[in-house]
Design brief:
22% strand, Glycosyltransferase, Beta-galactosidase, Chain A, domain 5, 6-stranded mixed β-sheet, 3 domains
């Protein structure tokens, strides 16, 4: 860190500037901002400068703001904080006042001017804060909630900071951290199938950056004090990989994935997840990718100390390899990221399928999806902040009588079995997944009255665009209870018959009803509002300043609809998809760039595969067939025969028998020759935390990586060594604080060095941004913590 002193724009230099500004103009830095974020940014800057330069003035300012965290709340010297400060905003301040007080305690323990009286005062606060939150804290035991992440961070740092101190409650706090937080609560979240698996965040990426950073640093601190945290390395290593897959192709924006105040579809990327990958307990390979992404995107954290610590741990950086799969499944939250290629002019999409995992910031939207082509966000989720309505996004909704009054047709909170049934990307790049979401319509104590509800999502990439085929099938049990579909776009759709079209930027968007059991599409302007009416489950407003939506209602008792969405360069609009059908089947024939794809479904009300599925499709050399309802055996395998009959391939699919080779049938993806010779289209299945190629992969059976397309390119320059102050990591931190040792340690202990990386702006609750906006409008000075 000392090497960064005086280096322009380094974390240490920025921290020193913040600390000096607070000292020279104390009035402008007397406001704590939202739940103390301004206080902790000033303190962090002073600590960074003190560690690097031993500047006595910075030490004095650090001690001042440490006392502020211990005693004050909103203003320096207001005396309104203390033991009860962590009760504010349902305890949100636990993640600001508590961990940074612990950091100051550790780093400044033996510094000039720090007395035993001050240390004893801090320990008393630690005990009061821990006692309150461990018993009463909001969502303290729910992994995946940002409140639990903040509590984990604070509790871990407190327990370590006061470890071995006479008169402290460190032993009791350590037991809480070790046994309750990390063993009882987080162990299952980090395990395969847990909510954290894959590195995504259920509340979205306004809340994810701070939360994953807190978990990563707390996990590292625990491990450096001798506690084993199973799954921590695989999870931390997945963070920069998911981050890369979550970026749009050209604009490099981050998928929102939940609550967002932005008036744009996606978010400016925040480097919290990259810092977590750099300084957390991740693999060396993951660290190199995180450094490279941080460099290429020129990201700085709002808190300069975090960047200073990452830079202090320099190491190599490299782009993801050109062989990286073009899909990534974040299994824990059910988000599937798919792209046509690692090139700019490509289709990029996210398909979401999960029950509601946390009570805040996550939407009831199993089956939701978005689509970007090159620089243009064409299908977007414009849900306003705090939406509890399925109708604000692109997920299907179904009329239900099982849920409480006022909920229908939105999906509810109480689903238990909602999940991706399967997801596969084949060798040609075609990606297909099924979301089974019928259980989303159960009540709090009432079983769902929607016995079957699935959405099949198929992306056919190719050329400079992509086509999505949506197959929606619902059994409602009553004619008056139907299926409600919508596709929302910031562009201005124009409807002609069953086809809506629009141009946005350099892209052409077309949405076509290919077939449905009833209903017809309509188009309307999206109503705009920053929020839905309180607790409205049928709200349908958009947070975006403009846009239209494609709507279709399909009557029960059995509803089936096939819609096709195409994203192409506006200079080369897509050929319309063709519908085909026969006895027991229906499908869509799609021409996408050089690739022809046929997507086939049976026409049974509940999509249950029969003993045989026979279909006919025009014979095209190299065509890909995607059969979403293939008959399979107990292992998901199918047998297939195909013959040329006239100009068509006549295909028969049956469940696999042992005397034949068998094909993967969930879904069945075949490559056909001109004379109807067939072969499996292939797939690369990701099954481990770190494969031979170095990519972090989902450990669930549904996680699949397809081969890159021919025009794949590297994400950036590769194998470039770090030079100068790069906001990255790679070395080790000198340890000092041994958790169980009774003696004090050296002046630069490690655990809280690591722990200092814990704050990113977008982890806070939404009111923080409202408060900061009001502060900016009032003319208050802009600090480094403001947007």
């Amino acid at each position: 860190m000392a090497a960064q002193a005086g280096i322009a724009d380094s974390g240490v230099t920025r921290g020193a500037a913040r600390c000096a500004a607070a000292r020279m103009d104390p009035t402008s830095y007397a406001d704590g901002g939202w739940q103390g974020f301004e206080f902790i940014t000033t303190l962090s800057g002073c600590l960074a400068s003190w560690v690097a330069t031993k500047n006595a003035d910075d030490l004095a300012t650090a001690i001042k703001y440490w006392n502020v965290l211990l005693d004050d709340y909103q203003k320096v010297g207001d005396g309104q904080g203390g033991d009860t400060v962590v009760t504010h905003d349902t305890g949100y301040a636990m993640r600001t006042f508590a961990p940074f007080s612990a950091l100051a305690y550790d780093w400044l323990h033996d510094a000039p001017g720090v007395t035993e009286s001050l240390r004893a005062h801090a320990r008393a606060r630690f005990d009061a804060w821990m006692s309150y939150y461990s018993a009463n804290g909001y969502l303290r035991d729910l992994p995946g909630a940002n409140y639990q992440a903040g509590y984990t961070f604070a509790a871990t740092l407190i327990a370590i900071a006061e470890g071995g101190e006479a008169g402290a409650s460190g032993d009791a706090h350590w037991a809480t951290v070790r046994d309750a937080i990390w063993t009882a609560d987080l162990a299952s979240a980090l395990a395969p199938g847990g909510v954290l698996e894959g590195g995504d965040w259920a509340e979205g990426w306004q809340y994810g950056p701070l939360s994953v950073l807190e978990h990563a640093l707390a996990a590292r601190a625990m491990q450096e004090n001798g506690a084993l945290i199973p799954g921590a390395e695989a999870w931390a290593s997945s963070l920069p990989v998911r981050f890369a897959y979550g970026l749009t192709p050209v604009t490099q924006k981050s998928f929102a994935g939940g609550d967002s105040d932005n008036t744009s579809p996606n978010r400016d990327p925040d480097n919290g997840a990259l810092l977590a990958g750099i300084v957390g307990p991740s693999s060396e390979q993951a660290k190199t990718w995180a450094r490279k992404l941080n460099l290429d995107l020129k990201l700085h954290n709002e808190n300069p100390l975090f960047d200073a610590l990452a830079t202090a741990e320099a190491g190599p950086n490299a782009a993801l390899p050109v062989s990286a799969p073009t899909n990534y499944l974040a299994h824990g939250v059910g988000n599937w990221y798919v792209r046509g290629a690692w090139s700019a002019e490509t289709a990029w999409t996210v398909f979401q399928c999960s029950r509601r995992l946390v009570p805040d910031h996550e939407y009831n939207n199993a089956g939701n999806w978005v689509l970007t082509r090159g620089p243009d966000d064409l299908v977007v989720d414009p849900s306003p902040y705090g939406s509890v309505s399925t109708l604000t996004g692109n997920a299907p909704a179904v009329d239900s009588a099982a849920m409480p009054s006022g909920y229908s047709p939105s999906q509810g909170y109480w689903g238990k079995n909602t999940a991706l049934a399967w997801a596969r990307q084949s060798g040609s790049g075609v990606a297909a997944a099924r979301c089974d979401y019928g259980d989303q319509f159960r009540g709090s104590d009432t079983a769902s009255d929607v016995p079957h509800a699935t959405r099949d999502f198929v992306l056919v990439p190719g050329g400079a665009g992509g086509t999505v085929v949506l197959i929606d099938r619902v059994v409602t049990g009553a004619a008056e209870r139907g299926l409600h579909l919508r596709i929302r776009t910031p562009s201005a759709l124009a409807l002609s018959g069953d086809r809506a079209s629009a141009t946005l930027g350099s892209s052409a968007l077309t949405i076509s009803r290919l077939w449905s059991t009833s209903g017809a599409p309509s188009v309307r302007t999206m109503p705009q509002a920053s929020e839905c009416p309180s607790s409205s489950h049928t709200c349908d407003v958009s947070r975006l300043p403009s846009g239209t939506e494609y709507q279709m209602d399909v009557a029960g008792p059995s509803a089936l609809a096939i819609n096709v969405v195409s994203a192409e360069p506006s200079s080369a609009p897509a050929e319309p998809a063709q519908s085909f059908a026969g006895s027991g089947y229906r499908g869509a024939l799609v021409k996408q760039g050089p690739l022809t794809a046929a997507v086939i479904t049976n026409d049974a009300a509940d999509a249950a595969p029969g003993s045989t599925l026979s279909y006919a499709v025009p014979a095209v050399d190299g065509a890909v067939h995607v059969v979403v309802d293939a008959p399979v055996d107990s292992q998901g395998k199918s047998d297939v025969t195909s013959v040329l009959v006239g100009k068509n391939c006549q295909v028969v699919v049956t469940p696999h028998v042992a005397t034949k080779a068998g094909f993967e049938g969930r879904p069945l993806v075949l490559r056909m020759s001109a004379n109807c010779e067939l072969a499996d289209d292939g797939a690369v299945v990701s099954t481990g935390p770190a494969s031979q190629s170095g990519l972090v992969a989902s450990s669930a059976g549904t996680g699949v990586g397809g081969a890159p397309s021919a025009d794949s390119g590297a994400l950036g320059e590769r194998d470039t060594p770090n030079q100068g102050p790069v906001y990255a990591n790679g070395g080790t931190i000198s340890t000092g604080c041994a958790m169980r040792a009774p003696a004090r340690r050296s002046e630069l202990p490690v655990l809280l060095l690591a722990s200092a990386l814990g704050v990113a702006l977008f982890g806070r609750r939404r009111r923080a941004e409202q408060a900061r906006a009001a502060q900016r409008r009032s003319g208050a000075p802009r600090s480094t913590m403001m947007v």
